[in-house]
Amino acid sequence: MKKSFLTVLITVIVFSAVFSNGVLKFAIETEPVGLDPNQVTAFASHRVLENVYDGLLRYDERMQLVPNLAKAFEVKDAYTVIFELRDNVYFHNGTKMTVEDVLYTFERIADPDYGSPAASYYADVESIKALDDKTVEFKLKTPSVNALLDNFAGVNSSIVSKEFVKSGANMQLVTNGTGPFKLAAYSEGNYISLLKNDQYYIEGVPKVEELRFVIIPEEVARVAALRNGDVNISKINEPLSLNQLSSNKFNIYRQPVLSYYLLGINNNVEPLSNPKVRRALSYAVNREQIIQMIAFGEGSVTGIMNPTVEAWAIKPSEFPEYTYNPEKAKELLKEAGYPNGFEFSITVAARYNFDKIAQAMQAQLAAVGITAKLDMVEWGIFIKKWQEIDFDSFVSLNSGSVNPDKQLYRTFHSAGSTNKFNYSNEKVDELLQKGRTTTDYAERKEIYDEIQEILVEDSPILFLYSPNNLYASQNTVKGFETMSNESLINLRFVSVE
């Protein structure tokens, strides 16, 4: 007999009361906005759905792509990637995942009438076909397979059941994934209860019987709930909140995120058009001091690639330009013909600490004779100036990426979609194109290492720091791993003593 929603909800409550050590209660500030994995864009939805659905690939805690619903994958050449599907994957309603479900998912994503945000990720795909009942091949129009791969790990590329969607189910309200947890109850404004999927393809996973997201918008209330034992883990937004959790009852987790603060520079405006002047700015900025002043120490100096992306990043410590050295800054200014410094403006809006970071840099640059005038504008004007490259420089926060092509091509290629810096370097363009078409990891590593070295030398923008993502848990929580892309996909491996 099919269980009613009420029966499932009562089961959850009884189980939680009797076996509290089988429940992981996670305090979140915002509830989901829709439950269709191929369509939702809300961050809060993604954090829940990545525990209900799975994609062909996923990122591990070291930010390396690993197989997920795909048992293995092979990059045949710059145009082709082949996925071998697992044979033991079941949807939550008990039906087995087949190659038809995978093909249907990507047909659904590509359908312009459906409007998936993931459609643009696969715009360069020429064909998707099944080679047999467990193998799928993606063929591209251009040699850009390296730029494609990380999309298979995103929530918007989660595999859905063809039969379930075709049945007319409202995918924004109900779920039927292959993930480690299945939706059991959703009390709007209160909590979301996910129960263990006993048919999950990894034996012994998940580690808890129930994952309950408790919706608590106010930080002070989340911290209180953690202190009172009402939740096991909580997201922390304000570093000062950690002062209430300093006892040995709690674990604190810090993880620099992929997003990064930067000083964007118009490379066509003199004297900022001179690479020596831009490098002088880099030496004159004390990044560690900014982190202490603005983020209360909760951040890390970042470079061209985020240091957490171990497969590709050259750490900032390898480059002297990231270390505060006012004497070197003065030396470079003198070589560039500005021994007494110069004047430029920093366009800034009073959001996301942009104004505070600009003020801190203003004082630091003054120490080497550089006058930075702050151009304070409203948010709408800030966006307009950014779009039209109507600035000397600006302070902003950019999203980062694990994929070096996605991180660098859009920002530093002469024709990059977010290259709002008038930066153009033929060698960098050549290397970026080569990085897209080379499939050997060792060769790609050499290419992206060289790009990072050139970009530090040119300093077309100043990378400042990545803020820390903060969580706190009771010390009975075991196995919680933070990720720089802010994913909570590893909750499947967490247990509660």
Lay out the secondary structure.
Elements: H1 5-18, E1 23-28, H2 43-49, E2 57-59, E3 65-67, E4 70-77, E5 80-85, H3 99-110, E6 125-132, E7 135-140, H4 145-148, H5 162-166, E8 181-187, E9 191-196, E10 210-215, H6 219-227, E11 233-236, E12 250-256, E13 260-265, H7 275-284, H8 287-295, E14 299-301, H9 326-335, E15 343-348, H10 354-366, E16 371-376, H11 379-388, E17 393-398, H12 404-412, H13 426-437, H14 441-458, E18 461-463, E19 465-474, E20 477-478, E21 495-496
Parallel strand pairs: 1-10, 1-11, 15-16, 15-17
Antiparallel strand pairs: 2-3, 4-5, 5-7, 6-7, 8-9, 9-10, 11-19, 12-19, 13-17, 13-18, 14-19, 20-21
Helix pairs in contact: 7-9, 12-13, 13-14
Short description:
The chain has 14 helices and 21 strands.
Description:
By secondary structure, the protein is α+β, with helices and mostly antiparallel strands. It has 3 domains: 1-52 and 179-249 and 475-497, D-Maltodextrin-Binding Protein, domain 2 (3-Layer(aba) Sandwich), CATH 3.40.190; 53-168, Alpha-Beta Complex (Dipeptide-binding Protein, domain 1), CATH 3.90.76.10; 260-467, Dipeptide-binding Protein, Domain 3 (Dipeptide-binding Protein, domain 3), CATH 3.10.105. The chain contains 14 helices and 21 strands. Strands 1, 8, 9, 10, 11, 12, 14 and 19 form an 8-stranded mixed beta sheet that branches. Strands 16-15-17-13-18 form a 5-stranded mixed beta sheet, sandwiched between helices. α7 runs antiparallel to α9 (326-335). Residues 1-21 have low confidence and may be disordered.
